[in-house]
Amino acid sequence: MSGALSHLRVLDLSRVLAGPWCGQNLADLGAEVIKVERPRVGDDTRHWGPPYLRNDEGCDTSEAAYFLSANRNKQSLTLDFTQAEGQRLVRELASKSDILIENFKVGGLAAYGLDYASLKAINPRLIYCSITGFGQSGPYAKRAGYDFMIQGLGGLMSLTGHPDSGEGGGPVKVGVALTDILTGLYATVAVLAALAHREKTGEGQHIDMALLDVQVACLANQAMNYLTTGVSPKRLGNAHPNIVPYQAFPTADGDLILTVGNDSQFRKFCEVAGHVEWGSDPRFSSNGQRVAHRAELIPLIRQVTVFRTTAEWVSVLEAAGVPCGPVNDLEQVFADPQVIARGLRIDLPHPLAGSTPQVASPLRLSASPVEYRQAPPLLGEHTERVLSDVLGLDTSQIAVLRSQGVI
Q1: Which residues are part of the catalytic machinery?
Q2: Which end of the chain is less enclosed by CB atoms within 10 A, N or C?
Q3: Which UniProt keywords apply (predicted)?
């Protein structure tokens, strides 16, 4: 392996999405990632289907698409650490690892002697990343936290969806588990920062990641809109609270996303739309005025956009330097020439299906590029290899562990 993190070993005790997403990022960057799973059951997401990966005959395999999204480049070790022998093996693995990722409830691993304090005692250089719904402190610390619930509690759903006063109004969650994904990304950043700290000091540390913290942090400009005014922003559907026009508009055959970021772009749009006068109208000539007179401008634009197809609008607006685009479904996304040119779909060999599609990592490094070494593993696929190569167990010792149900 030649990736930027190929000198590191990660012990991934996490399940579902936020933790595994962090682990997959580290694995893509070259780290050896050992995914510890429950014998016979595995990660919860192995069973979150349909859909499942299909083989060459079009039949479902046992591998859920959800699991395949977040576990590339990992080794699967089945290990029951509710048993004393399983706990001993995890401690041995932790002593030989650089990073540990876990997303158990606060204090959940202490009962097994696998909490940070216990593992730090045997490996002071260990970087131990805990991912929970609400963090290690505070009145909600012991609550379970799931993405959907955090999107609501953390304010995102108060901003997502159509206004209450309109048709179909009400809160809507984002179509993917965005809080989990963002938490996985922030966890990756934190791990890399902890590695930099360890290079200077030789010390590991505990990372406390909370879905709620990440959700609130990612409210970005909307959080500041509230903090600077004391007024909670409301749902605007596809519109933007601070920029106009910056939303979807109907076309002759679908929808067009118009993202006008400055006054010059707006004037160019007015020329293409055949309404140069809008650009000099005092109500619309500056972004601040367009925001104030949103209710007057948006209906005017909608009356114009319906007379051309989406493709026609994209063609003429791009030529004029006005940012815009279609609303694609996923079939259209993966057929898009830019997506194809960037190689965002890859295929990896898979023992049950011949191959499995994957979405490529967006990380593009010139000197230490992302590596695609293997498909998401079968449950327990690497148990014997890990126990043999990392811990030095022989076949008879492994057989005993299997007979005891430890692996």
Answers
A1: 180
A2: N
A3: Transferase
